[in-house]
Amino acid sequence: MANFALAERRRKARFSTDSLVVAVRRKGTINKLIGVAINFNRHGVAIVLDQPLPKECTVFLSLLSGDTEVDNVIGVVHNCIAQDNGYRCGIQFRTQSSMQFDQEFVEGRLRLLESRFRLCGELSATDFASEPELRLPTR
């Protein structure tokens, strides 16, 4: 019998990365946890943290890869599993939330990060600073 609990449920591909640093702040707190992303796409991220996050918890994320930074991205924790190296937390971005400031700007930056990781795998985003089609959107 197939184990459906372990089946891949994502509709969109995630891209492996260890060059994406993520700061996570739970709604209602001022403390931040810092982790490294395992995989990423414009819809969500999986990160390893040294503390667990409760399921369905709203979080504010700051993502940093090379010269690309995206601040105050709204997310919701979908799972958090203890592992040998910490806690693997799956977070879905909620950029359409009424709490999300600059929705179009944030979504554009997330798409940019996704395209960089798709095109280049583990290369740092700084390797593309000279590529005009991959420059960061500005306000």
Could you characterize what this model shows?
This protein has 139 residues and is mainly β. The protein has a single domain, classed as predicted glycosyltransferase like domains (Thrombin, subunit H). It has 1 helix and 7 strands. The protein has one helix at 103-120, and strands at 15-16, 21-26, 32-41, 44-49, 58-65, 68-83, 86-93. The chain has a 6-stranded antiparallel barrel with strand order 2-3-4-7-6-5. A hairpin with a 2-residue loop joins β3 and β4. The longest helix has 18 residues, at 103-120. The termini are far apart. Mean pLDDT is 84; it is low at 1-8 and 122-138.
SS elements, strand count:
7
CATH-assigned homologous superfamily: predicted glycosyltransferase like domains
Instruction: Report the portion of residues in β strands.
Output: 35-45%
Order of helices and strands: EEEEEEEH
Helix content: 10-25%
The end-to-end distance, rounded to whole angstroms, is: 53 Å
C-alpha-based Rg, rounded? 15 Å
- Tell me the CATH topology: Thrombin, subunit H
By helix and strand content, what is the structural category? Answer: mainly beta
CATH architecture: Beta Barrel
Tell me the name of the CATH class: Mainly Beta
Q: Mind describing the biggest β-sheet? A: 6 strands, antiparallel, barrel
